[in-house]
Amino acid sequence: MNNRFIVKPELCTGCRSCELACSFTHAVDGVRSLTRITPIDGGFKDLWVPVTCLQCDDAACIKSCLVNALKRNPVTGAVELNHEVCVNCMACVAACPFGCAVLDTQTNLIVKCDLCGGDPACAHFCPTKALEWKPIPKAVKKTG
Amino acid sequence: MIHITINGKVVQAKDGEMLLTVIRREQIDVPTLCHHEAVEPSGACRLCMVEITKPEWDGWCDYVTSCLYPAADGLIVNTHAPKVNELRSSILDMYLARHPKSPEIRQLAAEYGVLKTQFEEIVDGNNCILCGICTRICDTMGFHAISMVGRGHGKEVAPPLNMAPDACVGCLSCAKNCPTNYIEYNVSNGNLSIWKKDFKMAACKECGKTTITKEFAEYLSKNRDINIDYFENVTNVTEKN
């Protein structure tokens, strides 16, 4: 884990470029997928909060999966869902306290942010740099 | 790492890996009905049959279910040999005789050129092909609520004693992964009924949207150490706007 995904809500304008980037990046056979990131109204004027998977350390989705379809990728640190193993029991969808594992009703597959395998497309497309994919400074890195 | 030949192409495989895993990784289309990555293979549907041979076998070849056959060094596999296609179509012919009403079976049989069965159709039969995906998934998830009951003609998937199973939490994994969509369930007004058992759905505190049953939420929170409040919170952030 050399990089981390940084979200700065104060810079978000709610333009939803991230949603488009996500949808098209995860498209299968030319069909857009459900977005894994969405800016929601922060409650104040012009405050938007881009909500996406936080890749929790003690993730409820991993704990809730009874068939071990959800695993952490040791390289990117993202919790990844293996669709071949998933049995669509919806436990992770219900367990995620942020609502970030969602059912794509078009394909009937559960989708969640996988950090695009280590290069999130939303960070590239964010015009105000509210979303960033940055190297972790050495002092912050966990030792051992 | 070992090397096997699939349809004339040399590919790498791990020792002891099942042939079907390697075939699927090479993106070769081999039909299956009873295969699911979450559970152990059982070789019930027989559709993943392939032809295997080795140079030292002097032209002799064998027909095996690839989901249960471990890859070995130097193995030569043919997934669509004429004899294999013949085997598959005769298996599908028999499926079609037993489950003539199943659209999934009809479609798969049509792909292999079987449009009408040469056997006598069982008209009043059901669509359960007894592949065991439902029971194996239920066992893997740790519920053991349903199992195969009876033998021969009377074999069927059922809960113990054909009564509402205590162990079932209504996760619907059996119904959603059934290859012929045979298992019936009913979701309406926050209630779910499956296997003759009724469940209440856990509703989101804010929007009232339901995802899983209360029993399943309680089971997960008890056995998997998840805060029960998590199941009553937002279930889908993309619908919040």
Question: What's the SSE blueprint?
Answer:
The complex is a heterodimer of chains A (144) and B (241).
Chain A lengths: L2 E5 L9 H9 L12 E4 L6 E4 L8 H5 L5 E3 L6 E3 L9 H5 L6 E3 L4 E3 L9 H5 L5 E5 L9
Antiparallel strand pairs in A: 1-8, 2-3, 4-5, 6-7
Chain B lengths: L1 E5 L2 E5 L5 H7 L23 E5 L8 E4 L10 E3 L3 H17 L4 H9 L21 H8 L6 E3 L6 E3 L14 H4 L8 E4 L2 E4 L2 E7 L6 E4 H10 L18
Parallel strand pairs in B: 1-5
Antiparallel strand pairs in B: 1-2, 3-4, 3-5, 6-7, 8-9, 9-10, 10-11
Overall description:
The complex is a heterodimer of chains A (144) and B (241). Chain A is of the alpha+beta class and 144 residues long. Chain A contains 4 helices and 8 strands, in the order E-H-E-E-H-E-E-H-E-E-H-E. In chain A, the strands form 4 sheets. Chain A has a two-stranded antiparallel sheet. In chain A, strands 2-3 form a two-stranded antiparallel sheet. A two-stranded antiparallel sheet of chain A has the order 4-5. The two termini of chain A are 13 Å apart. The mean pLDDT of chain A is 87. Chain B is α+β, with helices and mostly antiparallel strands. Chain B folds into 2 domains: 2-80, Ubiquitin-like (UB roll) (Roll), CATH 3.10.20; 133-239, no CATH class. Chain B has 6 helices and 11 strands. Chain B has helices spanning 19-25, 82-98, 103-111, 133-140, 173-176, 214-223; strands at residues 2-6, 9-13, 49-53, 62-65, 76-78, 147-149, 156-158, 185-188, 191-194, 197-203, 210-213. Chain B has a 5-stranded mixed beta sheet, with helices on both faces. In chain B, a hairpin with a 2-residue loop joins strand 8 (185-188) and strand 9. In chain B, helix 2 (82-98) packs antiparallel against helix 3. Chain B starts with a strand and ends in an 18-residue tail after the last helix. In chain B, 35% of the residues are buried. Classes of the chains: A alpha+beta (144), B alpha+beta (241). At the A-B interface, strand 2, helix 2 and helix 3 of A face helix 6 of B.
